[in-house]
């Protein structure tokens, strides 16, 4: 009959993955005794990774063949649907499609054996992190109180009855607790992307402000969106950006001056540039242009976040968070919308940074004079290279950050997805630096085009003619003028914005876990 068939197959599926408890035995002797005394332990204890015993690949191959219904050496969505149904596991077509997309490295629409193995390894690693984060008592079991506490930490309050309902859906032996094997078996071949734990700890663009707001916006968990924690994160990030930009403003102004005025005949150095600024306008002149640079944080961040949330609905499917390439598309479009909205402020910032003492009485005076002398078009000088610069900056920053994040999670994450301060700062600094390096020539051309009308008698130039002129007169090096002060401000900017962000989070009542 069909009824006893499913239980006979289910243990075979469960035993394919690691059956070890949450922490490995201290030595080989303990491992041997543990294995002998507990028939549930199959393979070598591994403490989190899938067992790598000699028969492990054979067990994986056995499961792969069971799921490979049409025997073509690959698992497509239909294979997984039929194969898992035979094993008593029911998944929706959307869930199965996500599994294939997550593991399909060669983009042929199905998983071969190596892709299948890699997907399961990565999958169990993520499930282990979630299980450990829920297991507050660290006893290898999750009970109703721990589920309630974990959701409370995320700002969501549920009753004990609701927590018990969640437990019953996974609890196979009726103990009203979930051990690692029950947790893992329940989620076997179930897509897990962007676990809330990882989203919570690996915020990137919200935390770090290096003066350029071109990064792809952070993801927020469902709980953060429902409880209003997202706006507190954005306010904390905006405040951190304001402090960070103000502290590094002298380096930013020096960068703008070197981008516009430095050449082979006028070789500005860092010390000489600071001396020249102080001699011309005193120490206070080091902060010229910072006011408008800080003011534009709020409208840019707000517009970008709202645009990103709207574009996500168009780009993404029904899943909670987007995959990397979808995030890049949505983030770049949101960045383009935000930059288009506040671009006149970018032009004002450059003009204010380049102004001589007494040239303008303030931001409004500067805007009025530009409008009177040059017209509305002046507020969009350099717009094209600025828009083109969003894609390499956002793309490389996101790719490098996600690569570093995943490398750390794969190699070092054991008990939590929390990377700690130094890892987070290092990843943010490296990814921001790579993004800036890739888009720097476009940023330099943008700044020169913004500044050109402030130079008396300067001819009208296009982006392509300016590129050619710089390459002809200064060589490739000319496209990187001002790079030194730009890189000098990255580490202090990232560090200051992180410290201020963490303190503002506490002040605003954001759960800092």
From TrEMBL:
Q: Where is the EF-hand domain?
A: 55-90, 122-157, 158-193
UniProt-listed Gene3D superfamilies: EF-hand, Mitochondrial carrier domain
Which SUPFAM superfamilies did the record assign? EF-hand, Mitochondrial carrier
In the record for this protein, the Solcar repeats are positioned at 228-314, 322-407, 419-507
Keyword Transmembrane found: yes
InterPro entries according to UniProt? EF-hand-dom_pair, EF_hand_dom, GDC-like, MCP, MCP_dom_sf, MCP_transmembrane
A Pfam family cross-referenced in the UniProt record is: Mito_carr
Compartment annotation: Mitochondrion inner membrane
Q: What are the record keywords, sorted?
A: Antiport, Calcium, Membrane, Metal-binding, Mitochondrion, Mitochondrion inner membrane, Repeat, Transmembrane, Transmembrane helix, Transport
GO biological process per UniProt: adipose tissue development; ATP metabolic process; calcium ion transmembrane transport; camera-type eye development; cellular respiration; multicellular organism growth; response to activity; response to dietary excess
Is the keyword Calcium assigned to this protein?
Answer: yes
Catalytic reaction equation(s): Mg(2+)(out) + phosphate(in) + ATP(out) = Mg(2+)(in) + phosphate(out) + ATP(in)
Membrane topology value: Multi-pass membrane protein
Record GO terms (molecular function)? ATP:phosphate antiporter activity; calcium ion binding
A GO term from the CC aspect: mitochondrial inner membrane
- Per the similarity annotation, which family is this? Belongs to the mitochondrial carrier (TC 2.A.29) family.
Summarizing the function annotation, the protein's role is: Electroneutral antiporter that most probably mediates the transport of adenyl nucleotides through the inner mitochondrial membrane. Originally identified as an ATP-magnesium/inorganic phosphate antiporter, it could have a broader specificity for adenyl nucleotides. By regulating the mitochondrial matrix adenyl nucleotide pool could adapt to changing cellular energetic demands and indirectly regulate adenyl nucleotide-dependent metabolic pathways.
Name under which the protein is recorded:
Mitochondrial adenyl nucleotide antiporter SLC25A25
């Amino acid at each position: 009959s069909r009824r006893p068939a499913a239980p006979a197959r289910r243990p075979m599926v469960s035993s394919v993955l690691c059956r070890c408890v949450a922490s490995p035995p201290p030595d080989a002797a303990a491992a041997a005794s543990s294995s002998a005394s507990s028939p549930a332990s199959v393979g070598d204890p591994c403490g989190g990774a899938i067992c790598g015993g000699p028969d492990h690949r054979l067990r994986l191959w056995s499961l792969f063949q069971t799921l490979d219904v049409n025997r073509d050496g690959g698992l497509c969505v239909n294979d997984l649907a039929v194969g898992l149904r035979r094993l008593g596991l029911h998944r929706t077509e959307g869930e199965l499609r996500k599994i294939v997309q997550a593991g399909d490295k060669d983009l042929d629409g199905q998983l071969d054996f190596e892709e299948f193995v890699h997907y399961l390894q990565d999958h169990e690693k993520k499930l282990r992190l979630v299980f450990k984060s829920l297991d507050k008592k660290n006893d290898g079991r999750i009970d109703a109180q721990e589920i309630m506490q974990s959701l409370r930490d995320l700002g969501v309050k549920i009753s004990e009855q609701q927590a018990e309902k969640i437990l019953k859906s996974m609890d196979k032996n009726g103990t009203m607790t979930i051990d690692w094997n029950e947790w893992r078996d329940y989620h076997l071949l179930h897509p897990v992307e962007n676990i809330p734990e990882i989203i919570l700890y690996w915020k990137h663009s919200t935390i770090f402000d290096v003066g350029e707001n071109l990064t792809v916006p952070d993801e927020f968990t469902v709980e953060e969106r429902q409880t209003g924690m997202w706006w507190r994160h954005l306010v904390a990030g905006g405040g951190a950006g304001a402090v960070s930009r103000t502290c590094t403003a002298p380096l930013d102004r020096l960068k703008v001056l070197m981008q516009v005025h430095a050449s082979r005949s006028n070789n500005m150095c860092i010390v000489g540039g600071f001396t020249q600024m102080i001699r011309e306008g005193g120490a206070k002149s080091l902060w010229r242009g910072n006011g408008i640079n800080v003011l534009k944080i709020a409208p840019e961040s707000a517009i970008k976040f709202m645009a990103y949330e709207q574009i996500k609905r168009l780009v993404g499917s029904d899943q909670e968070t987007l995959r990397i390439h979808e995030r890049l598309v949505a983030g770049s479009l949101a960045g383009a919308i935000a930059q288009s909205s506040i671009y006149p402020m970018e032009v004002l910032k450059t003009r204010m940074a380049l102004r001589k003492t007494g040239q303008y009485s303030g931001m409004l005076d500067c805007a009025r004079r530009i409008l009177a002398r040059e017209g509305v078009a002046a507020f969009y000088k350099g717009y094209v290279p600025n828009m083109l610069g969003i894609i390499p900056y956002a793309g490389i920053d996101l790719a490098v950050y996600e690569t570093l994040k995943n490398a750390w999670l794969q190699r070092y994450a054991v008990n939590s997805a929390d990377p700690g301060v130094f890892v987070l700062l290092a990843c943010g600094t490296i990814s921001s630096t790579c993004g800036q390096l890739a888009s720097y020539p476009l940023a330099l051309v943008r700044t020169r085009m913004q500044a050109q009308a402030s130079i008396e008698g300067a001819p009208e130039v296009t982006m392509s003619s300016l590129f050619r002129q710089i390459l002809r007169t200064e060589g490739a090096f000319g496209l990187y003028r001002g790079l030194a002060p730009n890189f000098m401000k990255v580490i202090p900017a990232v560090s200051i914005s992180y410290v201020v962000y963490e303190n503002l989070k506490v002040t605003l009542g954001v759960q800092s876990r």
